[in-house]
Amino acid sequence: MSLENYNNVIIIDEESKFSADLEIKLKKLGYTVLGIICNYNDIINSFVEKNINIALINNNFKKEKTVSEITNIIIKKFNIPVIIIADEKTDNTNIEEIESKLLFFLEKSFKDSDLCRKIQIAQNYSTDLAQKTLKKPIKNKGVFVKEKGSYIKINIEDINWLEAMDNYTVIHSITGKYLSHTFLKDILEKLGNNFLRIHRSHAVALNKITSLEANTVFLGEKYLVVGKNYRNELLNKMKIL
Using CA atoms, how far apart are residues 217 and 223, in angstroms rounded to an integer? Predict the structure, then answer.
């Protein structure tokens, strides 16, 4: 998410007059309205395809999902601030149970200055959160493998060993076998230091090795041959007392 251009807004509403008036106000304030959405499927598609920075939701929206459900999805899945515009007398009990610094409320009787101020507050919170996130080291705990048109996540800590097969690799995990059309050496570069090639045909997760006997490593009942050219590196990586 860009921290420089933060003016892209989406409106989620099924009341055409209200959303049209809101769009005009937003444009006058200098915001770019990327669309007015009135059904749930379009909400998800829009957040995936467009660079949306803030979502404004009419609290009267009732199609397919509740406002609280939609708000939860937007915040948790896309980490984008949400401003719920509600009548003063509306019961927001369920919505207010959502614990997030990215959730804000605005009464429908708002003035343009109120709208501008609320969006600026949401921007500030979100920008601050994004900056803190950028400073934190990212721990890669999973990889994705394409399978039948979908991308399946495999937790790195679940991988036991990998098997090189011509121009593809079989990933052996505690959850099953996964085929990746990637060379073994390229996969190892992405998995980190816990994985080591011990043979031209396979590599292992070092923390899954239960014993080493002569030229064979054991991963529980599973055993793999250690190639002569790989044995010394394996011994150097193992914590031998």
Answer: 6
